[in-house]
Amino acid sequence: MTKVLIDTGVILDFFLDRAPFSDNGAKILSLCEAKKIVGHITPVIISNVYYLLRQTAKHEKVIEKLKLLVAITEVLVMDRNVVLHALNADFKDFEDALQNYSAEISSQVSLIITRNVKDYKLSALGVMTPENYLNSRFSSN
Q: 3-state class of 38 per DSSP?
């Protein structure tokens, strides 16, 4: 089964209904819910999603959405080792470095799904947009 890290933007596309990307975000999360893929997120993703959703909704509503997200995904560990790798990496964005090394070091993830593929060009993992992932997944069946 494919094990993926779902980047913050993909989750926000779904929760904030950001057209035209929300459909692909919904499809990725549906695959997680149906246990056709194993979706992973990080504590930083949860925090960022909370912060951004909180701009438009009450705390209780946002917490309910995050509970649903956590119910269908796995949460990767972020520890000192992940932080040190991220601090010493050449990633232009520290948050992306944290996500990447959380996934890489866990050895549980083989692919990062993000709309910002260029942000992960230094990753040792595969990186695809939601659209490309879905197209490749359904064209190979």
A: strand
CATH 3.30.1330.60 fits 3-139, yes or no: no
Enumerate the H helices of 16-79 as residue ranges. Answer: 22-33, 43-54, 59-72
Tell me the C-alpha distance between 114 and 40, whole Å: 12
pLDDT band for 137, please (50, 70, 90 cuts): confident
Asked if 60 and 67 count as a contact pair (C-beta separation under 8 A), the reply is no
Please state the pTM of the whole predicted model.
0.93
Q: In this prediction, what percent of the chain has a pLDDT beyond 90?
A: 96
User: 81-114 burial by CB neighbour count: b if 16+ within 10 A, else e?
Assistant: ebeebbeebebeeebbbbbbbbbbbbebbebbbb
The type of residue at 46 is I
Q: Residue 127, SS3?
A: strand
> By mean pLDDT, which of 29-38, 58-67, 79-88, 130-139 is the weakest?
130-139
